[in-house]
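Much of what follows relies on a compact textual record of a protein's fold. A record is reproduced here so that you can trace the correspondence yourselves:

. . .
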Amino acid sequence: MGRGIGVTTLACAHRRCPGLGTRNVAAGGQADDGSRTRDLQLGKLSLYQLSYVRARAESSGAPGPIYGSARLMRRVLTPVPIAVICALLALVALLAYGLAQNEPDRGAEEALGRGEPEAAPALELPKLGGGGNGSLADYRGQVVVLNFWASWCVPCRTESPLLERWHRRMADRGGTVLGIDMLDVTEDAQDFIREYHLTYPMLKDRDGDGIETFVIDRAGRITAVRRGPVDEKWMQAEVAPLLEES
C-alpha cells in the first residue's frame, strides 16, 4: 500500500495535487513511507531531474536551449572580444586621420586652374649632409625646378638623371634644380647622390607629401606642378619657356 501511495505522490509532485498532505502524511508530519515521500513533497524530484538534464547536456557537448544561450552570450561579451573590437575601431580612425593629414595641398593647382599663379612658400630647410640651412630665397630671380625625392623611390632612379641633365642646361641660363630629400635616411640619400652623380643643391625634409615637382618662375610664382615623376616632355613644356624669359 505504501508503494501505491508513493506512485501517486510521484504523479502529483509536479501538479501540486490538492490534498496530498492529508492523504499521504500521517498526524505529526511523518510521511507514510518514510523520507522518500517527504523528499517528493519538498520538490527534490524536480531538483534531481534538473541536475540530471544539465549533467546529460554537458556530457554530450550539446548545451540546452537556456544554458547554452547564456554561455554563448557570456562568451560574446567577454572583455577580450570587446577589447579587440575597440582596437580595430581605433585603428580605422587612425588610418582615416593619417590619410586626411597626408592629402597633398592642391592650392597651387587650383590657382593655376584659375590662371592666377600663387607665390611659392618661404621654404627653409637644413642642407643635406649639414652645413646650415638653405631656402628658396637663395635662388630669387632664377627659374627653379623644386623636386621632392627619396632614395627608396623607384621612379626617382629614372627621374634624377633627367633632372641632372636639365640642371646643367639651366645653370648658365639663370636656372637651377633644387632637390628636397624627404622621409629618408641621410646616408642612403648621400649614397644615391653619389651613384647617380647628382650635382644640384639638396635640402633635407623629415616630412613630405610625396614625390612631386614644382616649377617656380623668376618672380617666385609657382607655374607648374607635377605629382609623381617628371619626364622630358613635361620639362620641355613647363621649364624651357621660362628660361627664354629675361
